[in-house]
C-alpha cells in the first residue's frame, strides 16, 4: 500500500513536470511521457501506448476547451476544410496502425517507436532554429494537389499518433502552417480538432487488445498523472515567455532523443 502511494505520487509529479513542459512549448507532452511510462514505471510498451493515448485524449480535450477563449469556435469552423482534409488521412492511418500494433511482436514495436521518437526529436530541433512561416495560399496553388498532400500527410500523422499515443501536434502544426498557409496560433487549435477524433479512432481500435486492461490495473496511477498533467500544463502556460522558446525546444529535443534511445536501446540487439 505504501509503495502504491509512492508510485501514485511519482505519477502526479512526473505528470505535472511533463504537463508543464507541454504548456511551455504549446504541446501535450505525450512524446516525453511514453519513455517515462516504459522506463520509470515499467509498463510494457503496448500497454504504455494505450495508457498514453487515454491520457492524451483527456489533455487534448481540456486544452481545446481552454483555447476557445483565444480562438472562437466560429473562427475554427471557418477553417473546417483543413480539418476535414487532414482527418481524411489521419483517421485511416490511426485505425490501420493501431490494428498492426496489437498484432506486432514487442521487439518490432519498440524499434518502430524508437525510430519515431528519434524523428520527433529531430523535428523539434529543426523547429527550434528554422522559422515556421506559411506561404499565403499554402504550399501548392492548386486545390487538388493540396487535398492529396493533406490526405497523405494526415495518414502518416495518424500512424504516429496511434503508435506513440500522442496527439501529433509536433507534426500537425507545421503541416497546417506550411501546407495550408494558416497562422501558427490558429494551427495550434486546428491541430487539436484533428487530434481528438484521430485519437478516438486509435483508442477504439486498441480496445480490442488484451493490453487495454492496463487502464483498469493502473487506474490510480492514471488519474494521478492526469491531474498532475492538467495542473502542470496550466503552470507551463502561465510561465510562457520566461525561457526563450528556441532554447527550450532545443533542450527538450535533446532530452527526448536521449530518453528514447536509453529507453528502447535493447531494440538494437
Order of helices and strands: HHHHHHHHHHHH
Helix content: over 70%
Strand content: under 5%
* Largest beta-sheet details: none
**Poorly predicted runs of 5 or more residues:** none
**Mean residue pLDDT:** 85
Rg from C-alpha positions?
Answer: 18 Å
Q: What structural class do the secondary elements suggest? A: mainly alpha
Description:
The chain is mainly α and 269 residues long. It contains twelve helices and no strands. The chain has helices at residues 2-25, 30-39, 45-67, 73-77, 80-103, 106-129, 143-164, 169-180, 184-206, 214-217, 219-238, 245-263. α3 (45-67) packs across α11 and α8 (169-180) packs across α9. The termini are far apart.
Supply the key terms.
mainly alpha; globular
Q: Could you give the topology of this structure?
A:
Layout: H1 2-25, H2 30-39, H3 45-67, H4 73-77, H5 80-103, H6 106-129, H7 143-164, H8 169-180, H9 184-206, H10 214-217, H11 219-238, H12 245-263
Describe the structure concisely for a colleague.
The chain is built from twelve helices and no strands. It is an all-alpha fold and 269 residues long.
Amino acid at each position: 500500500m505504501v509503495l502504491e502511494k509512492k508510485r501514485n505520487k511519482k505519477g502526479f509529479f512526473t505528470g505535472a513536470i511533463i504537463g508543464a513542459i507541454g504548456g511551455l512549448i504549446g504541446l501535450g507532452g505525450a512524446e516525453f511521457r511514453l519513455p517515462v511510462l516504459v522506463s520509470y514505471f515499467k509498463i510494457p510498451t503496448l500497454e504504455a501506448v494505450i495508457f498514453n493515448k487515454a491520457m492524451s485524449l483527456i489533455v487534448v480535450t481540456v486544452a481545446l476547451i481552454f483555447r476557445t477563449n483565444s480562438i472562437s469556435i466560429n473562427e475554427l469552423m471557418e477553417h473546417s476544410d483543413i480539418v476535414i482534409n487532414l482527418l481524411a488521412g489521419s483517421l485511416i492511418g490511426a485505425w490501420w496502425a493501431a490494428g498492426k500494433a496489437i498484432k506486432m511482436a514487442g521487439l518490432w514495436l519498440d524499434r518502430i517507436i524508437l525510430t519515431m521518437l528519434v524523428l520527433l526529436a529531430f523535428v523539434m530541433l529543426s523547429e527550434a532554429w528554422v522559422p515556421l512561416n506559411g506561404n499565403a495560399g499554402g504550399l501548392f496553388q492548386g486545390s487538388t494537389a493540396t487535398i492529396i498532400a493533406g490526405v497523405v500527410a494526415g495518414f502518416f500523422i495518424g500512424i504516429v499518433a496511434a503508435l506513440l499515443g500522442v496527439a501529433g501536434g509536433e507534426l500537425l502544426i507545421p503541416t497546417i502552417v506550411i501546407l495550408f498557409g494558416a497562422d501558427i496560433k490558429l494551427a495550434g487549435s486546428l491541430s487539436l480538432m484533428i487530434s481528438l477524433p484521430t485519437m478516438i479512432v486509435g483508442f477504439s481500435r486498441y480496445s480490442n487488445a488484451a493490453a487495454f486492461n492496463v487502464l483498469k490495473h493502473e487506474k490510480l496511477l492514471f488519474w494521478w498523472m492526469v491531474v498532475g498533467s492538467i495542473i502542470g500544463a496550466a503552470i507551463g502556460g502561465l510561465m510562457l515567455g520566461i525561457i526563450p522558446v528556441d532554447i527550450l525546444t532545443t533542450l527538450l529535443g535533446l532530452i527526448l532523443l536521449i530518453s528514447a534511445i536509453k529507453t528502447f536501446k535493447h531494440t538494437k540487439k
